[in-house]
């Protein structure tokens, strides 16, 4: 599954307008570094998600819209993340999950993560939140069908998931 996060160029979210290429980041979740970085970052936004009646930001077909005063809260969360993540090791192996093919033994899916890359991701996020705040824009996190719309992937009318 893919999750897209980016600056939405309006004060009101209207599905159908894709995020600009330079104002977005895509997290491919399965067995990738970016997916693991997303897993580390997303818990910080769970309270905002619950305020919008979203149970879990890691589910399919989720859209979190952050604007107004919530952008200030998001900036504070980025500062907290930078503080929390700065104590991580330079490099570590992150258990992302397990894989079990039919008739085979279950095995761990581990991905090497790097503190510098994680901190760079959080810095980028903070810059995007600040830019959105200054410009009166929104930040949007979307997966599933929301990913397709926000990434500008045209629909042929059939149901297709990211």
Model description:
With 162 residues, this protein is α+β, with helices and mostly antiparallel strands. The mean pLDDT is 89. It has 5 helices and 6 strands, in the order E-E-H-H-E-H-E-E-H-E-H. A 4-stranded antiparallel sheet has the order 2-1-6-3, sandwiched between helices. The termini are close together.
Trace the largest sheet across and list its strands. 2-1-6-3
* Whole-number tally of structural domains: 1
Task: Note poorly predicted spans.
Answer: none
Which secondary-structure class do the elements indicate? alpha+beta
What is the CA-based Rg, rounded?
16 Å
SSE order, one letter for each helix or strand: EEHHEHEEHEH
Mean pLDDT rating:
89
What helical percentage do the residues reach?
25-40%
The N- to C-terminal Cα distance equals: 5 Å
Beta-strand percentage range: 15-25%
Global morphology: globular
Largest sheet: 4 strands, antiparallel
How many β-strand stretches? 6
Give the helix tally. Answer: 5
Describe the SSE topology.
Layout: E1 2-8, E2 24-28, H1 33-41, H2 46-51, E3 63-66, H3 69-85, E4 91-99, E5 107-114, H4 115-135, E6 138-143, H5 145-151
Antiparallel strand pairs: 1-2, 1-6, 3-6, 4-5
Helix pairs in contact: 3-4
């Amino acid at each position: 599954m893919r999750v897209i996060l980016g600056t939405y160029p309006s004060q009101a979210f209207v599905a159908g307008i894709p995020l600009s290429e330079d104002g977005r980041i895509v997290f491919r979740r399965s067995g990738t570094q970016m997916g693991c970085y997303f897993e580390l970052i997303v818990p910080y936004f769970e309270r905002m998600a619950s305020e919008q009646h979203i149970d879990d930001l890691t589910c399919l077909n989720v859209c979190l819209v952050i604007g107004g005063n919530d952008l200030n809260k998001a900036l504070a969360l980025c500062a907290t993340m930078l503080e929390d993540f700065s104590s991580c090791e330079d490099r570590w192996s992150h258990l992302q999950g397990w894989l079990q093919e039919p008739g085979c033994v279950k095995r761990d899916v581990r991905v090497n993560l790097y503190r510098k890359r994680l901190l760079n991701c959080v810095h980028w996020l903070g810059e995007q939140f600040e830019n959105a705040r200054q410009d009166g824009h929104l930040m949007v996190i979307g997966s599933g069908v929301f990913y397709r719309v926000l990434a500008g992937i045209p629909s042929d009318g059939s149901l297709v998931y990211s």
